[in-house]
Amino acid sequence: MSNLVDLIARLLISALFLISAYNKIFSIDGTMSWMEGFGIPGMLLYPTIVLEIILPLFIIVGYKAQLSAGLLAIFCIATAFIFHISTTAQNARAAKILGVDTEKVYAATFGINAALCGIAGALIAITLTLHPYVGLPYTVRSFMIVIVAGLGNLPAVALSGMGLGVFEEFADYILGTEFRIGAVFLLLVFILVYRRFKLAKKREYLK
Amino acid sequence: MSKIKQKDLILYSALIIFGLFAPFIFSAYKVQLTYLCILIVLAMTWNLQGGEMGYNTFGNILFYGLGMYLCASVQVGMFFPLAEWTESGGEKTFVHTTAQYFQGMGVGLLVAAIVPTLVAGAIGYAILGLRGHYFAICTLGLGIAGGEIAGGIEIIGAGQGFTTPPFPAEIVDNEARGEFFYFLSFVLLIAAFVFVKYIYGSRFKLILNAIRDNEDKAEAMGIQTMKYKITGWMCSAICWVTCNLLYRDSFHISF
Questions:
Q1: Chain B contacts of A176, Cβ < 8 Å?
Q2: Which of A131, A141, B141, B250 stands the most exposed, by the fewest C-beta atoms within 10 Å?
Q3: What residues does each domain of chain A span?
Q4: Is residue A168 exposed (0-12), middle (13-18) or buried (19+ Cβ within 10 Å)?
Q5: Count of H helices and E strands in chain B?
Q6: Predicted complex ipTM
Q7: Which of B138, B147, B151 sits opposite A189 (nearest CB)?
Q8: Residues of A with CB below 8 A from B132's CB?
Q9: Taking CB atoms and an 8 Å cutoff, what residues of chain B touch A189?
């Protein structure tokens, strides 16, 4: 009896992965571009599909079942970290249906954000004079850095942050200190407008 | 206009009568009443863009500021060298005669109404292609950039601002100044209200609503969304621009 239950459990668990592999095979292009949307190379899709077919089969057959199960567990945890926070960003309702606790994800994201901002604020306080109006330029600047880099693209965000710093110094030197902040905000407008025209060629828009 | 209900008619006439007598009844609050009128116009026209069209903008202040500086510059620059006026203490050297003051203000108003509206139309095509947060943040950036740049230009007073010409000294009645600006802004309020009301009763408002609700579908239905978006943005801009003149006249302009 317990053997039978075991078998059913194995079949059901394996079925989850097999169905997912099946779906991926029949929409390879879509899945690839979806993965690339998260900054993951699309080529990784092929090993993923192989993994999702072979390991469940091993579990059903019983060959190296423990090792296969362990590998699948690691795979699940890794994908959860890469894709699930983003899933909340893409479609909160669907994520909720799929069992992601969206409220917790929001809370955690906001918490991490607040903690990092607090650290940054403490560091700024060491080097700059403080006044209640330091905030707005930072808000718009940080938004701008992320827009230039593309949402969710971490290395590019770091790079574009440095680039903006360099631009500001050059603007200060070439145009004069009085136009320093103005130049930064105009750059924001120009970048947004440039990206808008670039996307408009494909009849798309920034969203 | 025949569609106005009788109840509304009574309300409107009551408000107009109140508006006409308010500066005499509450003569100590003339300046506040003037701002009340101006702020109502600003809110009404922002609603046209943010509420009806669904394009939340933080950048309309750009047109406001542009109109402010243009109007004041024209009013001064028509008769006196602008650069000397904006030097610190410069405004004390020159005095407008009554005719010069009103002439300058009229021309300034005209320039300040036309130029920023054209600017709104010109940048509208580029900016209104953005949607949602991107549009909001882009207009915010535009507004801040405008302010910062104005703060760097020497000829319009740079960081120390621009002192507007004082009300002509020949009109000795102290009450006249406040009443003049109050009634100017009150007339503007009525004009803007009629204008907005007219838009609300037209197909144009329905098109703006369609753009707000689903721009892609509106476009699929054959509405040239960009054309209407720019028109809506310009409608909003022109009211903001005309407001500024009244505001700036009681103030020292700074970015």
A1: 152
A2: A131
A3: 2-90, 101-130, 131-207
A4: middle
A5: 10, 2
A6: 0.73
A7: B138
A8: 207
A9: 127, 138, 141-142, 145
Q: Do B149 and A136 make contact, defined as CB atoms within 8 angstroms? A: no
- Cβ separation B131–A189 shorter than 8 A: no
Phi-psi region of B254 (alpha: psi -120 to 50; beta: other; left: phi over 0): beta
CB contacts under 8 A, A 81-140 vs B, are: 136-137, 140
Instruction: Please give the pLDDT value at position B252.
Output: 46
CA separation, residue B209 to residues A23, A78, B55, B193, B200 (Å): 40, 45, 11, 19, 10
Beta bridge partner(s), residue B252 = B163
Compute CA distances B231 → A135, B45, B62, B223, whole Å: 34, 13, 17, 13
Task: Read off the pLDDT band of A87 (50, 70, 90).
Answer: low
**Tens of pLDDT, residues A36-57:** 777 777 777 888 888 888 888 8
Average confidence score pLDDT of chain A: 79
Per-domain residue ranges of chain B: 6-253
Q: Which two tokens mark A62?
A: 């019983």
